Predict the 3D structure of the following.
Amino acid sequence: MSHSRSPWRVRRVPLEGREVAEWFRMRGWTAIDAEAAASHAFIDEAIVADVTIRRVWHTALALSRPASGETESDTLVVHVAGAGTVRIGDAPPAALVPDDVLFVPRGEAVAYRSDEPIARIEIDHGARDRAGDLFHVHGELVSAVMITSAVNALFHAHDSRGGGGGGIQRCRRSGSLAPSADRGDPRRGSRHRQTPDAAPPG
């Protein structure tokens, strides 16, 4: 039985050492104290039209992106696992914990810092004529579960169509340093709960 081709372009990217800082640099981010940047990261990315969805896991890391009129997308972020801080614009740093949902308007300066492995989902969208309004809310369990489940389903559907696994899934299979439940695999949700797609296939 044939399947129609998915419109999503999916990439799975395992990174280590200086590759981590370089991947973020190519997307407008600076890894602060680059020599001490995270040694491992796993990125699952799906793109269609002007929408990009990512599942991001990395070890301890500090990232910053300056304010810029060249940033073309607003970003919705669901923080899945691990603890850190985020600073958006001129606001003071705020704690970032599982089930936080935040919206980063295009063009805003933003900085993340974590001293432990963390996982998050990012959804970039650039269709609107003006940036949306910043928000950061804590304890959005229902929203976090709904968004995480939908994103996991997207990547699972790609794998089911024969797209194969890479990034997080491939590294789990090879037994290398891949995210486990307590290290913050976005496929599993945060530490105190699991999403319906808790166990990667294979």
Q: What stands out?
A: Residues 52 and 66 are 20 Å apart (CA to CA). Confidence is low (pLDDT under 50) at residues 164-184, 187-202. The chain has three helices and twelve strands. The first strand starts at residue 9 and ends at 16.
